[in-house]
Amino acid sequence: MRTLNKEELYKIYPSSDGKRMADNTLQWEWIALIKLGMDAVFKDRPDVFVAGDLLWYPVKGRIDIRVAPDVLIAIGAPKESRGSYIQFAENNLPPQVVVEILSPSNTAKEMEKKLAFYQTYGVEEYYIYDPIRFIFSVYARRTDTLVLQEISEEEWLSPILGVRWSMKNGILELFRPDGQPFLSYLELFDEQNTALEELEQQREEMKNKVQMLEEQERMILAQASRIEQEIKQFKQEKQRADHEQQRADHEQQRAEQEQQRAEQEQQRADQEKQRADHEKSEKEKLIQKLKELGIDPDAI
């Protein structure tokens, strides 16, 4: 027998049961928040399928056995579009996690039937939240039974999802494994606008900083130009001073040479005077000696 493809199966296993997805806006907002938040948690996992209000058929050939959880998560099922979740076409993999958001129309008998259904067909974690009466319940599988859990300190960390469910002041909050909260579209919109405003402020601050740096650069360049001019002037002054020093050294050298010549002339003059004085002294001695001998020096 030929195996039917999913499009053919969807004609046999209807994608709608004729019921509304949500009974009121509050219920719808919670369904959307959790479904889209789970999408974000598993955005990098191609093997995790998350759906909201999708009919789940757990038994082959039994279109009467079905339920549409407000949110279902099937880990191991490919992330692709579906008209319904037909379990035998998914390698007989049941959703491991389901979530129900209660509305005033939900009855205790209806919720008992859903608990029995999820217990029978392999759900491992079952979450129920009543956003009007602020009641939060968690069922986790223990062997073959979904057992109501005692939530320690009003928090529950899902072993399967890694998501933390927290009831503070009666309000349910969900946190991704990285600690970031699930946010609604409006919260994301406000957060994005805040981020854009901060980015614009950072851009304006950066622009002002760039202008300030450019002004500082102009001042530094002007100062560098002045310093360069002063260095140039200093070099010119130094060259002039060196030239003047060289000329002064030359003049001093010439003066020293003139002094040496004058000293040499003085030495020669002194020598001539000494010689003249010596000759005069010798002449006087000779005249004296001649007189002593009775000789008239003038007669000689």
What does this protein structure show overall?
- The protein contains four helices and eleven strands, in the order ααβββββαββββββα.
- It folds into two domains: 6-182, tt1808, chain A (Alpha-Beta Complex); 183-293.
- Strand 7 (135-142) and strand 8 form a beta hairpin.
- The strands form three sheets. Strands 1-3-5-6-7-8 form a six-stranded mixed sheet, sandwiched between helices.
- By secondary structure, the protein is of the alpha+beta class.
- The radius of gyration is 56 Å and the shape is rod-shaped.
Quick recap:
With 300 residues, the chain is of the alpha+beta class.
**Biggest beta sheet summary:** 6 strands, mixed
* Mean of pLDDT: 89
**Radius of gyration (Å):** 56 Å
CATH architecture of the largest domain: Alpha-Beta Complex
CATH class of the largest domain: Alpha Beta
Distance between the termini: 179 Å
- Total helices: the number is 4
Order of helices and strands: HHEEEEEHEEEEEEH
- Which descriptor suits the 3D outline? rod-shaped
Q: Which stretches are low in confidence, meaning pLDDT under 50 for 5 or more residues running?
A: none
Structural class: alpha+beta
Strand content: 15-25%
CATH domain topology of the largest domain: tt1808, chain A
Fraction in helix: 40-55%
The order of strands across the largest sheet is: 1-3-5-6-7-8
Number of domain modules: 2
User: Quick one: how many beta strands?
Assistant: 11
